[in-house]
Structure formats: C-alpha cells, structure tokens
C-alpha cells in the first residue's frame, strides 16, 4: 500500500513537473527574450540581479531561490523555462552551428543567416583564421536575433570535434579532420571566434564542444549511437580521441561541452565521473556540460546502466552533466533527491554551472551598456559575411588530378554539364543547411549548371541529369569541347552510417560507362576534355574512376556560393589550393577493418594516415595547384653533411 502510494505521488509529481515545463515554455514562446532582471527594481529585490556584487555571490542567491520542483526544468534543454516570480527569463540552449546557425528562421524582411562550407570542407583549407572569423559571424548574427527578440539563447551546440576515424561514419561531414592536432587548431579557433569579442566583460556567445567522447557511430548492424559501448584503450584515448578537447579547453577557453550518447569502456559518457575529472580537474574546465538529446535517458533505457529514471538522473548529475536535453531531469530529479540517490548539493552545483554561463553572457545585466546589445538585425547575412563564406569556399577546392594540365578550361567553348546533381543546389549546400532562402527553399543560390553557364562567357552550355541514360550523355559529350562530370555522395547522415564508401551503384555505373565511352572517343580523336567533379560530405572512394578521369576536382560541400566558386576554379579564376584533411581509402577498406573496432590499429590495417598501413587512393595532405612550385637550398654552410640536391614539384 505504501509503495502504491509512493508511486502515485511520484507520478503526480512528474506530471506536475511536465505541466510546469509546458506552461512556462508556452508563456515564454510568445515573446522569447533571453535577459533576466529586467525591472528597474530587480537589483534591489534580488541579489543575483545586482551587478555590483561578485559572480559567486550572485550565483549563491539565485540558486537558493530555485525550489526542487523548478530545479529539474531549469536543468533542461533545449529550453529552460522562465520563472516570472523572480524575473528569471527562459533560455534556449541548443542552437546548432556546424556551418550555419540552425534552429532559427529567416527574418521577416527576408534576411537569412550566413551559410558556410561544411566542416569537412573547411578542414581542406587548413586556415584557422578563417574558422575563427566564421565563428565570430555566428556569434554576431546570433546576438542580432537575441537583440531583436527573435531568439532567446546564446549557446551554440558545436563545433563537432570528434576524430574522423572511419569513412563509414555518417557524420564525417560535421568534423574537420582525421588528425587530432588539426582538430585542436579548429576547435581553438572556433571557440575563440565565438566566445571572444570587443567587450571583454562578457562572452559574445558560448560553445558546447561535441560529442564527449569517442563518438563516431550512428547506426550500424545491431548497434546505434544510443546503445554502443566504445571500447577504447587508454593510449588511443590520450593519443587520438582527447587531444583536440584538451586544446579547446586549455588554450581556447571553451565553456561548454556536450556528452555523447555512447558509453566508453562500460560507462555512459554522461554518467562517467572519471571522464569528468579529466575535464574539470586535469584541464581546468570551468563551464557547463549538457547531454545530447536525452542521452541521460539512454543511461537507463538503452545502456541499462541503472534501473530507472531517478537513478539515471542521479548518475548523470553526479557524473557531471549539468543540463539534460530531454525530460529526464524534469521528471525525476525531485524523486532522486527524496530517495537519497544523490546529494542536493550536486544539483545545486549543476544549476550554478548553467547559470554561471548565462551570467557571463551578460544575460542577467539587462541595463548594462555593451556593444553586443547594439548589434542590429541588418548584420544577418550581410554582404561582408557572404563574402567571407564565398572566400572560404574558394579555399577548400582540392585538385586531385590534372593530367596534361587540362585545367583550367578556356572560356567561350561548348560545355556539357553532366550528372544527377548538375541542376540541384542541395548537394553543394549539404545536410546541415539551416535557413537558406526566405521562402524556405534553396533556389536563391545558383546550381552548378547555372554557375558554369554564367562563367562560360561567349560559349554555349548544355546539361544532362538523367544518369540512367548514358547514351544521351555521350551524345552531348560528342557535341561539347569541355565536359564537367559531377559525382555526388548521398549516403550517410546523422543517425545513419554507411556500409560502403563508394558512390551509390547507379552513379558509379553511369560514371564508369561514361568515362569508358570518352576513352573510346579519345582514341578516335573526338573526345572533349573532361573533369570529374566530386561533391560530398564524408570521404568517397572512386577506385575505378581515377585512371580514366583526366582531371579530378574535389569540392566537398562548399556551401551556397559553391556553384560560383567551383565554376571559377574550373575556368581558372580561382586557383585551387586545398589539401585533403582526411585519407581517401580504396573501396575495399570496409572489408578489411571492422567499423565497430575503435582501435586506431584496427585489424592490423589501421585508421587515418597516422596508422594506416595500406596504400591510399589519395593521401592525407594531398592537393595540387595550377601553380608550379620549386624548392632549392640556399648557399649556406652546413657543419657536417653537404646540402641535399635540388628538387622541384608541381
């Protein structure tokens, strides 16, 4: 009887907590505004609103005012609800920004946020000043939305700094490299660009580095990201999986981290005090930790690490997860404390960590002047930001092959643009596009065909998109002087890994037959010049296409300005200088290495350029240029051996 009574009370409490979240979120939804302490008397009524007091004293006061019925919802993302009785505003935690601000809409006047090349593309630029400037654009545009009352959060869930350990991972397009050092440079640049600005008193915005840690599986075989236990050696953790995080925290000053769905060596990352000790004690992390979308629920439901939601809440909070993205904390925190599963002090510390970040953003100082408060809506998608995105697209072009220097093409010729993606903007924008055009479409930016036709001044440009009709494609090529053959990868995304790393079968067969036909035409001295253009997120193996393709240009996912920049690169107005930030493996790599094996020496074949023992199709760091380079030793006296002989390369 007592047990039934207790269960009934628990159910009522959960429903009450859930109703409170819904009510407060709906109350805030009409006019989202991120600033607390808005009334003129707030600093007199509440110490946490008094800017003359120190941060710790303000936090002590605020946390003391949060009752246990409110504590769970306050530790909930994506939105912590308002508490109007103390002037506490609602706050949205989860604005994604891999290459564009997501989770928001274009402004009513038609302005849309700036979209950049995908991180897998930006990695090819090896330019971390560019990464920092991109992140600064995100912070500026997000501040503009908050100032206009169009958004109520300054926290960005990004960047993704997981190592691109295997080409089958569905989210390779979100991360910039397979190399831990380069990932560290990227993470530090992004963090500084986003968090630092002209007002040193406040953070401009705040990162949430993701996904902590050893996360690189979505859905493969009988495993999903929700139940996968990544078995990782201490050496691989220290040598490969953790270095970028350490740099981001210690050198970048990152103040947010997202723990991942998976477990590491038997313990879910969001309920793992040992991992949290590395962050906070070894590296001096001073920020907050959020779960991925209810990965605290996974602690209970998927990993079965604990028995129920109350125990999962306790395990996550005691494990260092301050914010839960989902309903677990809101539904079970009160019971976890009442049942002595966790200390009340742990919950208070979690509240402090979340509120501390919001205070450092200035969101409890609404009457203080700051240049961040003056950022207008007009900066959103402004020409300077679009120019930076276009510049970035130009820097990520990787020239993989240029037989007999057939590129750049001359203008004013008969040009055939062939491929399924020839007249579709979506592949060049990618899977994390965010708002692109005011009407919700992507048609306000040119397709590859449109971009190539525009630049081919004085010539004629025709298109073929049906990859089931090779005969017509070859007939068009017979008419043309120049051919751009487009191959785009459509496999792999968040929640779904790849089983092959080749092009899909239809595209592969089409490209093989087309290039075979062009080879026959070449022997008959009737062939047009051909460049194979690759558009993709994750690595793509093109074993059978390398030899018959006279030229190969890898554009990755260059963003909305991609069509213009690709056309300029093919016709010589942009000099390709990108270098591969990943290894391009032969397609049979997937038959030799288990995707589920997290070891960097997996199967004796190895992963990434640091451990791979085979011969890649294209090596990490590879990339050609239209420029010829030479190197020679100066006439300098060497104390022992003579200088090496001169060498040159192009």
Helix proportion range: 25-40%
Radius of gyration: 27 Å
Mean of residue pLDDT values: 93
| Dominant shape | globular
Main sheet: strand order: 16-21-20-19-17-18
Profile the largest sheet.
6 strands, mixed
Distance between the termini: 83 Å
Total of helices: 23
Sheet-strand content, in percent, reads: 5-15%
Poorly predicted segments: 20-32, 645-650
SSE layout and pairing:
Blueprint: H1 2-29, H2 42-45, H3 55-64, H4 68-74, E1 76-77, E2 79-80, E3 91-92, E4 95-96, H5 119-122, H6 128-147, E5 155-157, H7 180-195, E6 206-207, E7 209-212, E8 219-220, E9 223-224, E10 229-230, H8 234-241, H9 243-250, E11 256-259, E12 263-264, E13 267-268, H10 273-282, E14 288-293, H11 295-301, H12 309-318, E15 323-325, H13 328-338, H14 344-360, H15 383-395, E16 398-402, E17 414-418, H16 426-429, H17 448-455, E18 460-464, H18 470-479, E19 482-488, H19 505-523, E20 529-535, H20 543-546, E21 551-556, H21 562-570, H22 589-592, H23 608-611, E22 629-631, E23 647-649
Parallel strand pairs: 1-15, 4-5, 5-6, 7-11, 10-12, 11-14, 14-15, 17-18, 17-19, 19-20, 20-21
Antiparallel strand pairs: 2-3, 8-9, 12-13, 16-21, 22-23
Give a structural overview.
The protein has 650 residues and is α/β, with parallel strands linked by helices. The strands form 7 sheets. The protein has a 6-stranded mixed beta sheet, sandwiched between helices. Strands 1-15-14-11-7 form a 5-stranded parallel beta sheet. It has a 3-stranded parallel beta sheet with strand order 4-5-6. β12 (263-264) and β13 (267-268) form a beta hairpin. α12 crosses α13 (328-338). Residues 20-32 and 645-650 have low confidence and may be disordered.
């Amino acid at each position: 009887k007592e047990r039934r009574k207790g269960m009934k009370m628990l159910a009522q409490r959960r429903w009450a907590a859930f109703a409170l979240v819904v009510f407060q979120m709906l109350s805030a939804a009409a006019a989202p505004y991120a600033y607390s302490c808005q009334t003129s008397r707030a600093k007199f009524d509440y110490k946490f609103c008094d800017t003359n007091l120190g941060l710790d004293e303000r936090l002590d006061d605020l946390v003391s005012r949060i009752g246990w019925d409110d504590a769970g919802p306050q530790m909930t993302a994506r939105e912590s609800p308002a508490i109007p009785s103390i002037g506490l505003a609602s706050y949205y935690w989860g604005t994604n920004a891999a290459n564009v601000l997501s989770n928001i809409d274009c402004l009513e006047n038609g302005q849309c946020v700036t979209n950049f090349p995908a991180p897998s593309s930006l990695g090819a630029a090896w330019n971390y000043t560019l990464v920092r400037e991109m992140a600064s654009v995100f912070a500026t545009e997000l501040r503009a939305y908050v100032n206009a009352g169009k958004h109520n959060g300054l926290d960005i869930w990004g960047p993704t700094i997981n190592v691109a350990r295997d080409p089958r991972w569905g989210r390779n397009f979100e991360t910039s490299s397979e190399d831990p050092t380069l990932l560290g440079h990227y993470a530090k640049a992004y963090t500084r660009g986003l968090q630092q600005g002209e007002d040193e008193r406040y953070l401009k915005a705040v990162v949430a580095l993701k996904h902590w840690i050893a996360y690189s599986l979505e859905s493969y075989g009988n495993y999903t990201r929700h139940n996968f236990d990544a078995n990782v050696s201490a050496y691989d953790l220290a040598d490969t999986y953790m270095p970028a995080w350490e740099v981001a925290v210690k050198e970048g000053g990152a103040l947010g981290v997202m723990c991942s769905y998976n477990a590491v060596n038997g313990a879910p990352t969001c309920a793992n005090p040992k991992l949290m000790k590395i962050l906070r004690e070894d590296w001096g992390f001073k920020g907050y930790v959020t779960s991925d979308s209810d990965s605290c629920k996974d602690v209970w439901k998927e990993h079965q690490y604990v028995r129920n939601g109350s125990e999962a809440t306790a395990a996550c909070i005691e494990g260092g997860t301050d914010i839960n993205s989902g309903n677990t904390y809101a539904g079970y925190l009160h019971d976890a404390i009442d049942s002595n599963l966790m200390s009340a002090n742990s919950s208070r510390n979690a509240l402090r960590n979340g509120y501390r970040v919001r205070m450092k953003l200035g969101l409890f100082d609404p009457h203080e002047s700051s240049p961040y408060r003056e950022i207008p809506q007009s900066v959103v998608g402004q020409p300077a930001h679009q120019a930076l995105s276009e510049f970035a697209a130009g820097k990520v072009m990787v020239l993989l092959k240029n037989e007999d220097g057939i590129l750049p093409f001359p203008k004013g010729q008969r040009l055939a643009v062939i491929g399924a993606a020839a007249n579709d903007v979506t592949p060049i924008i990618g899977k994390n596009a965010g708002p692109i055009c005011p009407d919700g479409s992507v048609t306000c930016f040119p397709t590859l065909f449109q971009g190539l036709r525009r630049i081919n001044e004085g010539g004629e440009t025709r298109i073929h998109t049906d990859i089931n009709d090779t005969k017509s494609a070859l007939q068009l090529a017979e008419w043309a002087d120049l051919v751009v053959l487009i191959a785009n990868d459509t496999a792999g995304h968040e929640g779904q890994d790849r089983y092959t790393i080749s092009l899909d079968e239809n595209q592969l067969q089409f490209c093989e037959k087309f290039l075979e036909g062009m080879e026959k035409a070449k022997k008959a001295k009737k062939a047009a010049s051909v460049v194979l253009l690759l558009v993709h997120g994750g690595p793509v193996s093109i074993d059978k296409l390398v030899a018959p393709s006279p030229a190969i240009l890898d554009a990755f996912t260059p963003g909305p300005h991609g069509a213009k920049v690709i056309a300029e690169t093919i016709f010589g107005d942009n000099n390709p200088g990108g270098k591969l930030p990943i290894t391009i493996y032969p397609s049979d790599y997937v038959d030799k290495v288990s995707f589920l094996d997290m070891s960097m020496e997996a199967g004796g074949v190895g992963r990434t350029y640091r451990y791979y023992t085979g011969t890649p199709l294209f090596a990490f760091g590879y990339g050609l240029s239209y420029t010829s380079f030479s190197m020679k030793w100066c006439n300098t006296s060497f104390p022992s051996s003579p200088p090496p002989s001169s060498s040159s390369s192009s």
